[in-house]
């Protein structure tokens, strides 16, 4: 097992290089950029995420620095909106953002710094990227863990009961409710919850913004916990909807497959009760596939699912930070969030494999190829 863990840890390095290389290449061809965005801000032509690169000699902007005249328009620039700006000033902006170096050199410096967890400074925020991530990371981890724990705590017992009572009235009506819930988009359900319970048009029971109240620092510890849980109710319901459905059916099908195997019939023939067979034999085998889905469920809750929910409920998490950074072309934050998410995903997948051996000691990863 030690050799397997060591191989998996060593594989993280080339995997991370590959992920970051693909991200870096995509960013190089993405329209707009930090230099063009800053130029647009300086010339009063900022169009945010819709900024586009224009080829040399093509469609150029007409912005010019304050006080500029048509007579001081400089040579065409590759940046839209840079016409009329001093070329030396544009070059200084490129140097400020590091674009005066070749792409391969910038990528090499990026990976060298990131392996040392040096993420640099944000382009458009007066703070370090590491500090930004440190402020947002606990929020996203909190949302991801709560969603995963809640969905597992409900879905596993429900899935087991549906498998035991397969085809019964309980199985049919719960499946109907679950399918309907799965078909509703999470963001649409979040808006529905806000309208219904957050002062939209009906009741004003739950808060609309953030994970804590404005006076949270002045509250006692019991009140702080209650306030935090109070703010979690609506985001957790909205986030858990789709994961709840998927995990329930996964658990049911996994247990059904094991219940129909020959060893279950043999166990019953030996005089074991249904409870002993289900939790003494079937549970350990059926839970393997459920455990294998934990990394995907957590990462989905940690990033993909939390972006929409964090935006709707104004929760300052890492998913929202990454999305805002993409829109604003804040590349150090974009690369850092991709790096953090990817690294966490690889580590969690390794932990999941190790959990396999804890659930079923018969599994030996030493005999399989990585």
Task: Give a description of the structure.
With 370 residues, this protein is mainly α. The protein is built from 13 helices and no strands. The longest helix has 39 residues. The radius of gyration is 27 Å and the shape is globular.
Shape descriptor: globular
Helical residue percent? 55-70%
For the biggest sheet, the summary is: none
Order of helices and strands: HHHHHHHHHHHHH
Summed up, the helix count is: 13
**Unreliable stretches, pLDDT < 50, 5 or more residues?**
48-76
Percentage of residues in strands: under 5%
Which structural class best describes the helix and strand composition? mainly alpha
How many β-strands, per DSSP?
0
Radius of gyration: 27 Å
Oligomer: single chain
Mean pLDDT: 77
State the end-to-end CA separation: 12 Å
Key features?
mainly alpha; 13 helices; 370 residues; single chain
Secondary structure blueprint with pairings:
Blueprint (H helix, E strand, L loop, with lengths): L1 H28 L4 H10 L43 H11 L5 H13 L13 H36 L4 H15 L2 H12 L23 H39 L2 H8 L4 H19 L1 H19 L5 H10 L3 H29 L11
